[in-house]
Design goal:
Layout (H helix, E strand, L loop, with lengths): L20 H9 L9 H13 L3 E6 L6 E7 L11 E6 L18 E3 L2 E3 L7 H9 L1 H7 L5 E6 L8 H11 L6 E4 L7 E5 L1 E10 L14 H22 L12 E9 L9 E10 L5 H22 L4 E10 L2 E2 L5 H10 L3 H4 E4 L5 H6 L4 E3 L14 E3 H18 L5
Parallel strand pairs: 3-6, 3-7, 7-15, 8-14
Antiparallel strand pairs: 1-2, 2-6, 4-5, 5-16, 8-13, 9-11, 9-12, 10-11
Helix pairs in contact: 1-3, 3-11, 6-7, 8-11
């Protein structure tokens, strides 16, 4: 995914060449970390759109402190609901707490050939570039509607977009396609893996650590379970099945958090393991979970032989479906053309999840294509190259050529 695009020019791009840069800088200045409100960013954005005569609609979270924004640019014939193209991105960013930044993360700064700031890659640059295009799209008149979809709480489980999509459907909007601008290096991504996230809880039995046979050590049993998950992962990495188009061609199993124990001299009663399966279409996450659960179940008889109320339970914390859009679909072909890549070699698949799966699940053919690379996301000193931003602007202008009645 970090390879340059086919036909990419490597001539130097200057900040002055980027029309969207002031809007990107403005969006970065809003510290819309997922734990906080995104309403200041939405207020500014909606005011800009409404000043251009664009109708906007919000859907809020239960607290009223976060919202999605749906804005529609009508077609020349007045159509607003049918056959449109959605340009979708999330407004929230991950925290910067404890990260060693060399710049102010919420004051975008150009240094050399890169732009630094929280969200420049994931994924405010895309949303701000789409916003930059609105006056041109209005001036040139649209053959079909264009919708801007800006969501909240993507970074904590693609939460907000679910309400946005439900409202989209309720309002009778039936877009013909959606482009989600997550960082793909401006490669056209037609699929990503699904993800099932679990918490496995081990209930042991406390005793003095000098009397280990009298206790059931929840931490040690949890570690046996984690070791089995790693064995499953190694098998998948070695034996597949493989889809070579993915950046990681096999299904993965990953342990992210282990929490248990209270003191060294107490046999721990509880331990929780948070883990995930990221799967492609050739593996069933349910089958893999059942395999892991079967191993955990095999540990329980020995636990209960010591203390009857011990055991192991599992909770499915979240599910993000995978998605796959055909490379010959209208939206994919449109994006190949705008990205100036050949469909036979330019289609990509990625392992990270996006809101694309939820649009796809709602019946909207979707691809993922945006500036920057996922390797720079969530990092201190997050950056995107100016060349990537220029490619995004070029993509948007070619999209305008395809969607507008009048030439530029």
């Amino acid at each position: 995914m970090n390879a340059p695009l086919p036909n990419a020019t490597h001539s130097a791009v200057q900040a002055a060449d980027l029309t969207a840069l002031p809007l990107i800088e403005k969006w970065i200045s809003f510290a819309s970390v997922s734990r906080d409100s995104n309403l200041p960013l939405l207020d500014w954005t909606q005011a800009r759109l409404e000043a251009l005569g664009i109708e906007c609609r919000r859907t809020y979270d239960d607290s009223g402190k976060k919202a999605n924004l749906w804005a529609t640019l009508p077609a020349e014939d007045g159509e607003t609901r049918l056959g449109g193209i959605v340009l979708s991105g999330h407004t929230d960013v991950v925290p910067v707490d404890g990260q060693p930044w060399n710049t102010d993360p919420f004051a975008a700064q150009v240094i050399g050939d890169k732009l630094y700031g929280r969200g420049v890659t994931d994924m405010k640059s895309y949303g701000a570039t789409a916003l930059m295009m609105v006056p041109e799209l209005l001036k040139r008149k649209l053959k079909r509607p264009v919708h801007l979809a800006f969501s909240y709480d993507e970074e904590v489980g693609c939460i907000g977009v679910r309400r946005l999509i439900a409202d989209m459907v309720d309002q009778g909007n039936k877009p013909a396609g959606c482009i989600v601008g997550e960082p793909t290096g401006m490669q056209v991504v037609i699929a990503h893996k699904g993800k099932h996230a679990y918490k496995t809880s081990v209930r042991g039995f406390e005793a003095h650590s000098s009397l280990t046979p009298l206790g059931v050590n929840a931490v040690e049993i949890a570690c046996e379970f984690v070791a089995h998950l790693k064995t499953m992962h190694r098998r998948l990495a070695k034996e597949g099945p493989f889809d070579p188009i993915y950046d990681v061609p096999h299904t993965t199993i990953h342990t992210g958090v282990i929490a248990g124990g209270t003191a060294l001299n107490i046999i721990p009663r509880d331990c929780d393991v948070t883990w995930e399966i990221r799967h492609h279409h050739m593996n069933s996450p349910v089958d893999l979970f059942n395999e892991a659960k079967s191993f955990a179940d095999s540990l329980v008889p020995a636990m209960q032989a010591v203390a009857a109320d011990t055991g192991i339970t599992h909770k499915l914390n979240s599910v993000l479906p995978g998605f796959a859009t055909e490379a010959d679909s209208e939206i994919a072909q449109l994006c190949f053309k705008c990205a100036d890549v050949d469909a036979s070699s330019g289609a990509g698949k990625v392992s990270f999840g996006t809101e694309a799966a939820l649009f796809h699940q709602a019946g909207v053919p979707t691809i993922v294509c945006g500036p920057g690379h996922i390797a720079q996301a969530h990092q201190p000193n997050e950056w995107v190259t100016l060349e990537q931003l220029a490619w995004c602007e070029r993509f948007m202008r070619r999209l305008a050529d395809e969607l507008c009645v009048n030439p530029s």
